[in-house]
Amino acid sequence: MSGIEGKIVAVTGAGSGIGEATALLLAERGAKVVLGARRTERLEALAARIEQAGGQAAWIRTDVTRRTDLAGLVDLARQRYGRLDVLVSNAGVGLISPLDDLRVDDWEEMIDVNLKGVLYGIAAALPVFREQGAGHFVNTVSTAGLRVVPLQSVYAGTKNAVRTISEGLRQEAGDSLRVTVVSPGAVRTDFTERMDPEARERIDRMMETALSPDAVARAIAFAIEQPDGVDVGDIVVRPTAQA
Ligand SMILES: NC(=O)c1ccc[n+]([C@@H]2O[C@H](COP(=O)([O-])OP(=O)(O)OC[C@H]3O[C@@H](n4cnc5c(N)ncnc54)[C@H](OP(=O)(O)O)[C@@H]3O)[C@@H](O)[C@H]2O)c1
User: HSE-up of 161 (CA within 13 Å, CB side)?
Assistant: First the structure.
């Protein structure tokens, strides 16, 4: 048995990109996956794909800006499969732009999704992990927080806030819970679709050498498959060509 077989893993932002690749890989390796995002048609199609391949998947519409939706995702895992072993908080938006543009609505959306969305996941899963005496938080952050560059300060700030909170959570977690942050570099996904044209032009150049989302999925799987007493704290996965 690998350390993934039989685990119950909930994934936010599961309908596309890194979340989708992670759900597919973990299901292929024997996890029962619980899929959350807003576009339900994507979740339904992904769950059907996983089940056709012999895996098990459940899904529920989850907007991570709503605390009750995260509670619903965790509840679904428990109702359908009896417990929750791992919460992958992966949903995120990268509405990058110059600060001078004062796109305050975009700043707020990044804080609501990237930061508060992760906190709501912690609020939903932590009591369950405590009750079970085991559990694993995996939070998708970004190399944007490791090398801060123009246009990305608010986005990087939300990701570094999650990095900091994750370390605090690890310290408070005691010896039975695990906390992992994964920092992807450029990954070829739909992530750039909502960026403003100037930002998108710069990022599209980086995307020429971007990774496939599978590379990040494999890093997440590596953290999950470790024996219970092994906490992989921090993984950085970027293209070799990335500055
Ligand atoms: N691509 C990169 O280069 C890169 C690099 C570093 C880090 N990341 C991080 O990786 C994570 C995944 O992004 P990705 O690259 O895979 O892009 P993506 O394909 O755009 O995936 C982002 C996912 O987040 C979901 N999402 C957005 N707002 C949400 C909300 N309010 N509630 C629930 N789900 C929401 C979207 O689903 P719905 O729209 O259906 O809700 C989507 O499935 C993000 O946290 C991102 O910051 C990406």
Answer: 16
Model confidence over 37-87: pLDDT tens digits?
A: 999 999 999 999 999 999 999 999 999 999 999 999 999 999 999 999 999
Q: Which two tokens stand for residue 103?
A: 């796109």
Number of domains in the chain: 1
Which helix (H) or strand (E) covers residue 136, if one does? strand 135-140
Given pLDDT bands bounded at 50, 70 and 90, which one contains residue 2? low
User: Which is catalytic among the residues 155, 185, 199, 216?
Assistant: 155
**Position 3 in a domain:** no
- From the alpha carbon of 193, which atom of ligand 1 is closest? 20
Cα angle for residues 13, 14, 20 (degrees, 5° grid): 130
User: Active-site residue 120, yes or no?
Assistant: no
In-domain check, residue 243: no
Residue 241 forms part of a structural domain: no
Q: Please give the backbone phi and psi of residue 167, each rounded to the nearest 5 degrees, phi first.
A: -65, -40
- The tokens describing 130, both together, are 């405590």
Q: How far is the CA of 162 from the centre of ligand 1 (A)?
A: 15
112 inside domain? yes
CATH number at residue 131: 3.40.50.720
